[in-house]
């Protein structure tokens, strides 16, 4: 799929199959959870990146950027997951699972469900209310460096 920016989400997508990213215009940030640690991967214009399956990831796209993402067809028994983490303590706040048939529609529905339910947004460990969208200015745009 061809994806342009900007976007504003806090969820991490998890699917069993790898994803291939190619950044056609501008740079993007791929937030990942790698061996339990949060890290940001900058994919610059002209760069490619292969994300291993089962890696929680949040693709952050900025204004006037365009990228290509190739995803494999999902096996019939696979589930995609959307996961939200607590910004205060790092615990999983909520996770939604679905068999992927239309990723765009299903992600939107999961985000809307999370956005509208404070119980799902409240961290069970520390009580922090998780944001459904990043706070303005909280993510540094690598295109402005």
UniProtKB/TrEMBL annotation:
Example GO biological process: quinolinate metabolic process
Isomerase as UniProt keyword: no
InterPro entries: 3hydroanth_dOase (IPR010329), RmlC-like_jellyroll (IPR014710), RmlC_Cupin_sf (IPR011051)
SUPFAM superfamilies linked to this entry: RmlC-like cupins (SSF51182)
Gene Ontology MF annotations: 3-hydroxyanthranilate 3,4-dioxygenase activity; iron ion binding
Keywords associated with the record: Dioxygenase, Iron, Metal-binding, Oxidoreductase, Pyridine nucleotide biosynthesis
NCBIfam families reported for this sequence: anthran_nbaC (TIGR03037)
Gene Ontology cellular component terms for the protein in this record: cytoplasm
Function, as annotated: Catalyzes the oxidative ring opening of 3-hydroxyanthranilate to 2-amino-3-carboxymuconate semialdehyde, which spontaneously cyclizes to quinolinate.
Top-rank taxon: Eukaryota
Listed PANTHER family: 3-HYDROXYANTHRANILATE 3,4-DIOXYGENASE
Protein name: 3-hydroxyanthranilic acid dioxygenase
Name of one Pfam family that matches: 3-HAO
E.C. numbers: 1.13.11.6
Zinc is among the record's keywords: no
Cofactor(s) annotated in UniProt: Fe(2+)
